[in-house]
Specification:
Strand order of the largest sheet: 3-4-5-6
Number of helices: 13
CATH topology of the largest domain: Lysozyme
Helix content: 40-55%
Number of domains: 3
CATH architecture of the largest domain: Orthogonal Bundle
Number of strands: 10
Radius of gyration: 24 Å
Distance between the termini: 48 Å
Shape: elongated
Strand content: 5-15%
Largest sheet: 4 strands, antiparallel
Order of helices and strands: HHHHEEHHHHHEEEHHEEEHHEE
CATH class of the largest domain: Mainly Alpha
Length: 336
């Protein structure tokens, strides 16, 4: 039934597209918006609504001449072609792209990379109202009615239906490692022997290394271990690695990995350093307190040890005046 309704809506959309520029825009770019949603997690409904508003349904000079469908300005890090027009100020600099597809991709990457938009990716992908309001709060546009405009477009044209498109099943590195381990364990169980698990240990798929004093679990690929602390996946750096090189290896943005690990800039990592591949949790799921084991431990080190966001640890330990702890001091790991 849902499939029939979707096809019916698509047919209506096609029939009206020739008369309504907004419908024509949706018909032309909906597949691209869905593709970007599957690649980056930005809801297709939000992408289409922003495109409609920012480009005037693709009819604005910025979209027609510069292929810029989302009003992205140059900022200090833009090195590509530029287009100048009056906006909030006279002759402001806007990014120019070779194609609309490039503009859509840049829009998704812009939201993924900028720190101020990161909280949006914690929302349910179908929460278009939360996304619209979050974009306005984060300063994507100065128009106080910006969120309302996006929501109205999404509901008037039922753009939320594109958020229901089945995602492309691309397993994450973490999922691949879990799948490998499950396959080995299943094969071992079916043969009633530990020989396969022993062989897997020799190849690096499973490890016999003792667990540290805090809660930690690990699964391994044939090439490198991926651990889990507090429900967050991480790897241990090897000699010569940086945050950005690890980001490249796992298909992440360098800025994301820096943010996941509460650091401001890329650097050469000490072998064995933890590098989280996802956002750390707001609090520790297992323990409420930690007794510092050595003089000089910092909150950042403890946040990496337990997979907790540094900003949250600072809130829980707001009365600690120093930058480092002495052995025996107590660190709060969760909201009291």
């Amino acid at each position: 039934m849902k499939r029939f309704l979707f096809l019916l809506a698509a047919a209506v959309l096609a029939l009206g597209a020739s008369k309504n520029p907004r419908l024509a825009y949706i018909e032309k770019y909906s597949a691209l918006a869905v593709s970007e949603m599957q690649r980056t997690g930005v809801p297709a409904s939000i992408t289409l609504a922003q495109g409609l508003v920012e480009s005037g349904a693709g009819l604005s000079p910025l979209a027609q001449i510069a292929n810029n469908h989302f009003g992205l300005k140059c900022h200090n890090d833009w090195e590509g072609e530029k287009y100048y027009k009056d906006d909030e100020q006279v002759q402001e600099c806007f990014r120019a792209y070779e194609s609309a597809e490039e503009s859509f991709r840049a829009h998704s990457d812009f939201l993924r990379e900028r720190e101020r938009y990161q909280s949006l990716f914690d929302l349910d992908p179908t929460d278009y109202k939360g996304w619209a309001k979050g974009l306005r709060r984060a300063g994507y546009a100065t128009d106080p009615a910006y969120a309302t405009k996006l929501i109205t477009l999404i509901e008037d044209f039922q753009l939320y239906r594109f958020d229901q498109e089945a995602p492309v099943e691309v397993p994450s590195p973490r999922e691949e490692q879990l799948g490998m381990l499950a396959a080995v364990e299943g094969a071992a169980a079916s043969h009633g022997s530990t020989a396969l698990l022993a062989a897997a240990g020799e190849s690096g798929l499973v490890s016999s290394a003792p667990a540290p004093h805090y809660s930690e679990s690990a699964t391994f690929s044939l090439s490198r271990p991926v651990y889990e602390e507090n429900g967050v996946a991480y790897v241990r750096a090897v000699e010569g690695e940086t945050y950005s090189s690890i980001a490249d290896a796992y298909g992440l943005f360098a800025r994301q990995v820096l943010r996941f690990n509460d650091v401001d800039s890329d650097r050469l990592l000490q072998p064995g350093s933890r590098v989280y591949l996802d956002r750390k949790k707001a609090q520790c799921a297992q323990a409420g307190k930690y007794l510092v084991e050595r003089d000089g431990e910092t909150l950042w080190e403890i946040s990496q040890m337990f997979g907790i966001q540094l900003s949250k640890l600072r809130l829980y330990n707001i009365f600690h005046e120093g930058t480092a702890y002495a052995a025996g001091e107590t660190v709060i790991l969760r909201k009291l």
